[in-house]
Each structure stands twice: as C-alpha cells, then as structure tokens.
Amino acid sequence: MEMAKANTIRLMSEKMDELLQHWIELHLTNLSLRKDMIGNENLYRQSKDFIEAFVQAADGADLEDINRVEWTSVRKILAEISTNRSRQGYSPSETASYVFTLKEALFRLLQKEYGLQPDILIQETLTISKILDKLGLYTFETYSKAREEVIYRQQQEMLELSTPVIRLWDGILALPLIGTLDSGRTQVVMENLLRGILSTNSDVAILDISGVPTVDTLVAQHIIKTVSAARLMGAECIISGIRPEIAQTIVQLGVDLSMVKTRATLAGALKLALDMRKLTIVQIGKA
Amino acid sequence: MERIPIIKMGPFLLVTIQVDMHDRLVMALQEDLTELVSATGARGVLIDISSLDMVDSYIGRMLGGIASITSLMNAYTVVVGMQPAVAITMVELGISLQGVMTALNVEKGMDLLRATLMISPDQDHGIDREE
C-alpha cells in the first residue's frame, strides 16, 4: 500500500506536464461540443491546480477517506468546477467526466511505466481507481446540489412574482392569480392577501382567476378557504374572471360557491366593490 | 380570578382582549358579557382580538357561541381586528364563524354596527335615554 501510493504520486509529479496534456486532450474530446464554453487556458490552469493539490493531499494523507482535512483543497477545486459547470448548463456526465478522464490519462501513464510489472500495475490501478471514483462521486454530488439550488431559487422567484397584491382604490385590493394553484401557492397567496388587507386597511378584496387554467375541487376549496379567512378579518372577497368553461366545471363538480360573491370580469367585480363602498364612477362631459 | 374588562360605549359594549386566552377566561367573559348585555340593553358587542396571536378550536367556538347568545338577547356581535395568522388557523380548524359579523378594526366595527342598527353617530346615547 505505502509502496503503491509513493509510486503513483511520484509518477504524477514527475510526469505532470505529460499527464496534464493527455488529460486535457481526453477531456476536450468528451466535451467536443462545448469548446466554446470553457477557455482552454482556463481549463489548463484549473487542471494543473487540481493535480498539484491532489499530489500534495495524497502525499500527506491516506487515500481511503477524501473527507479528511488534507483533501480540503482538492474538494474545494472540484466543488468550484462542478458548481460552475452546473450553472453554465453542462450535463451531469460532462461534469463527471472531468475526473473520470483523469483516471484514463493516469492509467495510460501507469501502463507505460509499469507495463512489464503486472503486480505493481494492478495495485496502482486499484488504488488510483478507488480514490478517483470517490472524487468523481463527490463532483457529481456538488453538481446536483448546485442544480437544486438553482431550481429552489427559481421556485421562490416564481412564488414571489406570481402573487402581487394591487391596491385598486381606497379600501379595494385586487389579487390577479396566474397559473396553476396548488396548496403551496395558495398558502402564499392567502398570506399575502391577508397581510395586504391588514396593511392597507381594505375591506374589499378582488381575487381574479382569469389566469388560472383549470379549477378543480381542490382549487375551489383553496379559494373558499382564502375567502373565509379574509372574511374572518373583516374583509369581503369577490371572485372575478370566471370564464364560461370554468363556471361549467364548477357546477359540474358540485362545488358550492353560493356564499362567495362572484363576477365574470374584473370590471364587474370593481363595479361591485365600488358599490359596496358606496362609491361611483361618473363621466364628466363627453368623451 | 383574572377577568377581561368590558367597557360600555353608548349602546355598545367593547371588549378588548389583551391577554392570552385560556378556557376559563373565555367562560368568564361569556358570563360577564351576557349579564351586562341584559343589564344595559346593549344592542351591539365589539370583541377586539387584534392583540391575540393564537387561538385554539375551543376559543374559536366560544367566540361563535358568544355571538349566538347575544343575538338571542337582541344584540349583534362583531369580532374585530383578527390577525392574518389567526384567520388562517381558524379556517384550517374549520371554524368560519358563520353568522358572526367581522371588521378590520374597532372603528369600522362600530360603523358596521351603526349601519346595521341604523343609528346615526349623534344618536349614540339614544338608547340610554329611552330606558
């Protein structure tokens, strides 16, 4: 074991340039379509850093556990590479191939060196393969973690974007709903609306569902819940934007919306809201 | 025992809940309130829960109960100032306080009571004089 370790590491630092060149060549053939996305020079520098860190870490620590302190710098470089690639839209295999092509390059080097000594060759191969597989898996993990972060951020942004509370008039709020309503979104919508009611002191709120593609029993239930919560706070809700097909579905589903004020259009709802607040719009002179 | 004060304001009774409600306190409130409604002939009761940030199903039900009892005694109950979090909890618990009037704040609640009872602001003390 000690022997094997020393052999490989020595070889790696001695033949660094050869290894590096070979590795990058292999890697670039794998990335044939992406040459434009990553600068050759950049890749060269990154890879050189990686091998140097690898040699340094492997020299001081055992090759079994990449979670040890000695491997910190290696892990950091890998994490940086995979996070960047995940953001730039590389595929998972393209990212993972970074480490795996190093394996290939190293094997060729070993073969050239120990081709006549099968015992050493096998042992070296095994050790190197083990550690590089672990690093490969680590790359993959960081890659998907970065991806998840991107997805999570987008989800949050969508939630924020999709629920604006608009003040239409003194004491009249509107909440245009766009897109499918699920329980998560309804919760956000409900909270935003109730907070809006409180902060603007409004007693009428219009929920416009023109942008909601389908209304099923669950969505209807969510709407009823929102209306009841607003009512508990002392505000009246009007549901507007009920398209003909949605009106038909609601009735066919047997959903009872009779205790909720509904209007076909936002204009109708605004008119009702103004009536409720004893306000009126008058025309001044000829248009 | 701790009690929630009830303030008489013209024809209305105002209850401001500023402590954490526990079951015995709500029971006591219900008793005091019904007695006072009967004694003063109040036509409206305002329960301000704006500083309450937690309710359970029992308290939710009791609020509905108070409203039903006062309506038997010819007085309207308005629950005012419910916090968003409380409203969401109530809905999730399935308590929608059907038949109870609600308002955003005491002022709006009072306007609502006046409109319902058709009392103009300057007539606020009319009921007292009648008695």
Radius of gyration of chain B: 14 Å
The CATH architecture category of chain B equals 2-Layer Sandwich
Distance between the termini of chain A: 93 Å
**Poorly predicted parts of chain B:** 126-131
Give a short account of the largest sheet of chain A: 5 strands, mixed
- Number of strand elements of chain B: 5
Order of helices and strands of chain B: EEHEHEHEHH
CATH domain class of chain B:
Alpha Beta
**In DSSP terms, counting alpha (H) and pi (I) runs of 4 or more, how many helices of chain A?**
10
Strand-and-helix sequence of chain A, N→C?
HHHHHHEEHEHEHEH
Distance between the termini of chain B: 32 Å
- The global form of chain B is globular
What's the multimeric state? heterodimer
CATH superfamily of chain B: STAS domain
Q: Structural class of the secondary elements of chain B?
A: alpha/beta
Mean model confidence by pLDDT of chain B:
85
Mean pLDDT of chain A: 83
Strand order, sheet with most strands of chain B: 1-2-3-4-5
Shape of chain A: rod-shaped
Protein name (chain B): Anti-anti-sigma factor
Domain STAS (chain B): 29-113
Pfam family, one (chain B): STAS
Describe the model.
Chain A has 287 residues and is of the alpha/beta class. Chain A has 10 helices and 5 strands. Chain A is rod-shaped. Chain B has 131 residues and is an alpha/beta fold. Chain B has one domain (6-123): 2-Layer Sandwich (Transcription Regulator spoIIAA). A 5-stranded mixed sheet of chain B has the order 1-2-3-4-5, with helices on both faces. The chains are: A alpha/beta (287), B alpha/beta (131). Chain A binds chain B through residues 190-191, 194-195, 197-198, 201-203, 225, 228-235, and chain B through 79-84, 86-88, 90-92, 96-97, 102-105, 108-109.
Task: Give the topology.
The complex is a heterodimer of chains A (287) and B (131).
Chain A: H1 2-14, H2 16-30, H3 40-60, H4 72-88, H5 92-114, H6 118-161, E1 166-169, E2 172-178, H7 183-200, E3 204-211, H8 217-233, E4 236-240, H9 244-253, E5 261-262, H10 266-276
Parallel strand pairs in A: 2-3, 3-4, 4-5
Antiparallel strand pairs in A: 1-2
Chain B: E1 6-9, E2 12-16, H1 23-40, E3 44-48, H2 57-72, E4 76-80, H3 84-92, E5 101-103, H4 106-117, H5 126-130
Parallel strand pairs in B: 2-3, 3-4, 4-5
Antiparallel strand pairs in B: 1-2
Helix pairs in contact in B: 1-2
